[in-house]
Task: structure prediction
Amino acid sequence: MRRGRRRLRPPNPYAAIPFATWEQLTEAVPDIVDVMVRYLEQIACILRPGSVHNTDQCLRAFATYLIQCHPQVRTVAAIGRPQIEGYKPWLLARPGQNKPTLAPATSAQRLGVLRMFFMRIDEWGWPEAPSRVPMFHGDIPVQDHALPKALDDPSASALLRAAQADRRQLIGLTVEVLLRTGLRVGEYCSLRSDAVVLIGDTYWLHVPVGKLHEDRYLPLHPHLVELIGAYRAAHVTPGHELLIPYENGRQLDRHAVTRFINKAGAAAGLGHINPHRLRHTLATQAINRGMSLEAIAAMLGHKSLDMTLVYAKIANRTVAQEYFAVAAKVDALYTAPAKLPAEDLGPNMARLNREHHRLLGNGYCTRPKVMDCEYESICESCTFFQTTIVFRPALLAQRADACAKGQTRRAAIYDELITGLDTTEAS
Result:
């Protein structure tokens, strides 16, 4: 072999062979099929149909590998490390849906499902289980966890303008609903006709049980209420069970939604846009404009804040502001002049090294003179801010002003300060 040429992996003779059906597998390895089918019946009691279908495919893939590469293995109990170690390269060599090889995520998912199969039948004490679980956590490929890709503000605006300008009403409606609500595609396509609910003087969107087995309500922008009403009046027959179907009444699917978004994206001069990017875009816009993680989690339907914290990593404006605010304080530690010993200080120098209490409208600022103020008019959230019971009336008035203006985060700051005063007074 000449230098500089990469060695190629020999082709997998089984790569293009489709997975065997359960009927074919029953003829070849009936004992293995019996265990796998009983396992599918058990998980069907606790998992969703889509998860059971996926497990079915993963188990058939492994059983197909066994009859092709290890025909001597006739029972689940006989499966060991040699079969697992041979299965991984066999799986990697198979073609993906639109690629010459499986995507890393697909490979990891199929191996993870297989490992769970062995772990569960072992925990359940099935006599057909191997003497020990033949798969380990290290058998699952490590996957990259890239940050969500959101559209920047100019791109999001261009996409929305292009969608609104499209002659097809459904395209503008779809893009605007996804950009303004952060719905998943499946949630959008499954919205029921009664999903728009008026509670008090605010319209809400009822999102049914979906990916995370929960339903939720989202505040609905008045403009979206008008758009949805106009589309339904023009294209949806009375009594239709879906909120936003095709013009002919059929239910939308993710492929149609992707086409709608990319038609508008092409008109806006943008590249391919996955529908989920609109969800990421709303979350990033919200966190960069001060919306709390808890509110974003509720809006997006996240079960855990861990799912929402990923957007804090890409909240460039928020992170930059907080970083530079903290950096200014840290810099003061490095640049402040060293204090002289007490006996070397005259009365004037000693006075300069004391904390300087500056009177504010509702407390005191204890920031040393050597540090510049980075906060301008938000003293109450500064670590150098202090107050006393004397300023309680001013704090109450400021909290009332914040509540009247709907400034919930500002009101929360005053609530914390007032609570601290009440606690101090009680003690």
Q: What stands out?
A: The radius of gyration is 31 Å. Residues 362 and 391 are 5 Å apart (CA to CA).
